[in-house]
Request: fold
Amino acid sequence: MKLSRYFLPTIKENPAEAQIASHRLMLRAGLIRQSSAGIYSWLPLGLQVLKKIEQIVREEQVRAGAQELLMPTIQSADLWRESGRYDDYGREMLRITDRHERDMLYGPTNEELITDIFRSNVKSYKDLPLNLFHIQWKFRDEIRPRFGVMRGREFLMKDNYSFDIDEASARHSYNAMFIAYLRTFARMGLKAIPMRADTGPIGGDLSHEFIVVAPTGESEVFYHKSFDDLDVMSETSDVNFDGDLQPLVDRWTAEYAATDEMHDATACDVPEAELINGRGIEVGHIFFFGDKYSTPMGALVQDNTGQKIPAQMGSYGIGVSRLVGAIIEASHDDDGIIWPEAVAPFKVGIINLRHGDEGTTGVCDDLYAKLQAAGVEVLYDDRDERAGSKFSNMDLIGVPWQIVIGPRGVKNGMAELKCRATGEKSEVSLDTVLDQFIG
Ligand code: 5CA
Reply:
C-alpha cells in the first residue's frame, strides 16, 4: 500500500476524550472513529488489525475442535423469555420492536439462540460432543462505555458453545477451550493469566477469566509471580486436544490467581514477596453451566440407554475488538503503537527520505515491488513530506520494521533498517535488506 493513496486520517494532538493510551493511540493513528457513545467505525488500519486478531482466534478455535457458524445480531425476544433472561438482563439489553410489533433485541450474547439451533437438530449422544463458535458483533447498552473499544456498547466477540452428554465430557470441552485461549493470546504476543472468576448473568459454577496485566485495566488482580514465566506456546506445541487435558489445566491453575471479586486475602497463602497485585484487562471469559439453558429450553438428547437428558453446556467468549486495545496497552511507547508481528497491519514500512529524487524513489519503488510480489504486507511512505514527519508517523502507527532510504545511503548501496520494538537501527546493504522478509 502506498501511503499517498491510503485512507489514514492520523491526528497530531491528543484527543481530549481519551483517558488511556490505547484509546488515544487508536484515535491518533487513525484506527477507529467514534460514531456515537461506545460505537465505532473501524477505519482501514484498525480493520486490518481486527481481522488479524479474528484470524488467530479462528485458527485456535478450529485447532481445538470447534466449528464456525454465523448467527444473526438481531434475535427474537421469545427465546430469551424461555430461558427467563429477557427480564433478568435489564437495561443493558437493547430492545427493538419490529413493524409487526414483535419484540426483538440486539444480541448481547447467544446462549439462547445456539440452544435453539441445537435442540432442533441434535437428538442423540452419538452427535456429541459438539462445539460451535461464531465471531459476531454484540450490543450491550453499558451504563458507562469508556476507554474506546475496551468497553464499547457495540463490540466484536468470538463466542462459542459446547454441548456434551455428561459432566466429564463437558469438563474436557472446557479444558480444550482453556488451553485454546492461552494459545490464542500468546500468539498475539500477550501474557494472559487465567483467574477463577465470578459467573455473573451467564450463570454456572465453573468459570475463568483471562486477564492481560496492564496498569490501566479495569479490574484489580492478585496472582502468583510464577505466571509471569508461563511459556504457553512451547508447552502446547504438540498438544493433542483429544487426549487428557486435565494435567495441563491443573498445572496452569495450581498457583493463586484471582480478580478482586474472587480474591480472599485470608484464603490466599502466597507469601507477600511472591504475590503480585496489579490491574488487568479481561480479554476472555469461559463458563461451564451444565443444564442452565438446556433444561428450561428443552435441549434434550438421548443417552446410550435411550433416556432423554439435558445437554451439558459451556460458553466461551473472547473480546475480539477489546483485544486491539489490550494489545496496544501492553505494547506501546511515547512515540506510538508497537504491534507484535502476528497482528501488525503491515510488516514493513518503507520511508523515502527525499521525495522527487530519482535515486531514492527508484530504490524504494523496487523494494516495494519485491515485497509485494513476495506477499509481504508493506506500507510505502511515498508522500511529499518532511523526513521527521514520516519517521514520527511510521512510529505512531507501529509498523514492526522500517526501511529508510536516503540519498547518501543509495550512493553507498545501503539502507537503514529499524526495529520498532527495540528502536535498534542498522546499516544494511540494499542487496540483503529484504532477506529477512522474503524467505
Ligand atoms: N456468553 C459469555 C461467553 S460467550 C459472555 O458473554 N461472556 S462475557 O460477558 O464475559 O463476554 C466475553 C468477552 O467479551 C469478555 O471477556 C470481554 O473480553 C468482552 N466484552 C464484554 N463486554 C464488552 C464490552 N462492553 N466492550 C468490549 N468487549 C467486551
Observations:
- The radius of gyration is 24 Å.
- Residues 64 and 241 are 6 Å apart (CA to CA).
- The pocket of 5CA is lined by residues 109, 111, 140, 142, 151-152, 155, 157, 159, 202, 282-285, 315-317, 319, 321-322 (CB under 6 Å).
- DSSP finds twelve helices and 23 strands in the chain.
